[in-house]
Amino acid sequence: MDWRILFTEWADFLIRWVHVIAGVCWIGSSFYFVHLDLSLRKRDGLPQGVGGEAWQVHGGGFYHMMKYTVAPSHLPQDLTWFKWEAYWTFISGFSLLCWHYFAHAELYLIDRTVMDLTPVQAVSIAIAVLALGWVIYDFLCRSKLGDSDLALGVVGFAFLVAIAFGLTRVFSGRGAFILLGALIGTIMVANVAMNIMPNQKKTIAALIKGEAPNPAYGKTAKSRSLHNNYLTLPVIFLMVSNHYPLAFGSKWNWLIVTLVMVIGAVVRHFFNSEHARKGSPWWTWAVAAACFIAIIALSGASREGGDAALAPAPKVKFAQVEEIVVSRCSMCHMAEPVWDGVNAPPKGVMLDTPERIRLHAEQIYLQAVMTRSMPPGGNLTELSEEDRKVLAAWVQGGAQAD
Ligand code: HEC
User: Fold this and answer.
1) From first to last of its 402 residues, what are the pLDDT tens digits of the chain?
2) How many other CB atoms are found less than 10 A from the CB of residue 98?
3) How large is the C-alpha radius of gyration of the chain?
4) Ligand 1: residue whose CA is nearest its atom 13
5) Half-sphere exposure of 183 (CA within 13 A, CB side)
6) Interatomic CA distance for residues 144 and 2, integer angstroms
7) Which residue has its alpha carbon closest to ligand 1 atom 12?
8) Which of 74, 175, 195, 337 has its Cα between 20 and 30 A from that of 350?
9) pTM of the predicted model, to two decimals?
10) Ligand 1: distance of its center to the CA of 333 in Å?
């Protein structure tokens, strides 16, 4: 029993568990408050300072919610803050980023065929992107652009597309996607920590001094909240995308991200408009479906031409396939991998016996032929085009055992 591996594997799992739970809580509360905010209604006779009310039913009781647009005339004794969901999502997410992508940069972050970086260079660029990305976004929001939600939205969108494009020119597809997801997540958390929370605190401080709080505090906090709302769905796509090489392995991966951001925006628009009882813009679903179909079409094109570049293929023997897989894949994909930094067979995929190789025929095709995302790191074990052709022919011929 190797205690180091036992401990690190479970620590990794525990952090991931916390990350998903914190993320679910954060997104849940943020979707809830956006819904609540949009469904508030004005009527005569509401208490002083109340901008709207809403009735809700849940868990066997009725809730009567009221929103004080600035602040109540005196501070309530018990006030619930919503921030730790966001902070814990960041803390756990950043830990996972360091753990997997920074500590194993050569496997996950770097693709030598995209840009031949050392791990130190790759990690430095990644951290600079996270920090600068937030600084530029924050600058855009504070600039004149910030006066118009629409203008800011359009420029912010173009900014993210440019970053997506840039990242895919520097890192592996997998690395680029996770870094863009991490950047958007960082922007969202920083919105909470550096803008929404401080503004709420200023409002409360003014109230305690007996002064009328500046309504601008509430207004900017709300617009940052709105950005977070529109960024949520694309972030989730980016976070789970590293299990789907068709998404990140395509040469159009940056365009796929762009379409995902469009889908995220129109789907949120549909729900936001429903919550505000401003009608159901069904066209948004048509746009989302069209974008998704475009994504599927774009995903088949890998940088090197995918499987099309390898056809037509001659008939091959299984012995050839076995030799290729054992010499190019199994050093990582075996019960006790011999590749430095790989502790256990990645994703439980073992490719060290004829049965296991046959069992994974389709996966091998997807990873090593169609998307060329294996071997990782920009072909670390130097699987040749000839070898890929053999793998392709074997799977296309029905993955025969002889
Ligand atoms: C240098 C080590 C290494 C080599 C060599 C390697 N892999 Fe992998 N493989 C990995 C890692 C790491 C992952 C896990 C990626 C992740 O976390 O999503 C992986 C994941 C996979 C998966 C599962 C993907 C999933 O998300 O379920 C398959 C299938 C796979 N590799 C096939 C291959 C094939 C086929 C080869 C040889 C052509 C190969 N690998 C060579 C390290 C390697």
Assistant:
1) 678 878 888 999 999 999 999 999 999 999 999 999 999 999 999 988 899 999 999 999 999 999 987 777 777 888 889 999 999 999 999 999 999 999 999 999 999 989 999 999 999 999 999 999 999 999 999 999 988 888 999 999 999 999 999 999 999 999 999 999 999 999 999 999 999 999 988 888 888 888 888 888 888 888 899 899 999 999 999 999 988 999 999 999 999 999 999 999 999 999 999 999 999 999 999 999 999 999 999 998 777 766 766 666 678 899 999 999 999 999 999 999 999 888 889 988 999 999 999 999 999 999 999 889 999 998 999 999 999 999 999 998 888 888
2) 12
3) 25
4) 346
5) 27
6) 58
7) 346
8) 175
9) 0.90
10) 7
Contact 346, 352 (CB under 8 A): no
Distance between Cα 329 and ligand 1 center (Å): 7
Distance of CA 136 to the CA centre of its chain: 20
Q: What is the position in ligand 1's atom list of the atom closest to the CA of 360?
A: 29
62 three-class SS: strand
Q: 55-87 as b/e, with b when 16 or more CB fall inside 10 Å?
A: eeeeeeeeeeeeeeebbeeeeeeeeeebeebbe
Distance CA 20, CA 14 (A): 10
* Ligand 1 lining (C-beta closer than 6 Å): 107, 242-243, 328-329, 331-333, 339, 342, 346-347, 349, 360, 363-364, 367-368, 374-376, 380-381, 383
121 near 131, Cβ under 8 Å?
A: no
- DSSP annotation string for 312-369: S-----HHHHHHHHHHHTTTTSSSS--STT--S-GGG---SSHHHHHHTHHHHIIIII
| Measured distance CA(276)–CA(282) in Å, rounded | 15
End-to-end CA distance of the chain: 37
CA 259 to the chain's CA centroid: 14
